[in-house]
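seq as requested:
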Amino acid sequence: MTEEQAEHVIDGPLSIAFHGRDVTAWRWIMNGHEVTVEISETAMQIPDEQLSERVAAARRSQGRSEIERMLDWDVPLDRVELNTDSE
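struct tokens:
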């Protein structure tokens, strides 16, 4: 992440729980916009080698890699959902 990009990530990650959802999730705030990154529990349990690099990176970084991917977007997503099939 460049210094310019780092200025946009204001806060995070904050671990959050969703009752009734089988995910691990983190909340980030960038440019005043709240973004939740969710990874399925199945994807959290299997080795990196069995996941796409995107999912493995998001898991290792508690979602930061997904936030970095959206820093230049005019309108970032509110929620990113990743699982074993995500590319």
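The chain has a mean pLDDT of 89.
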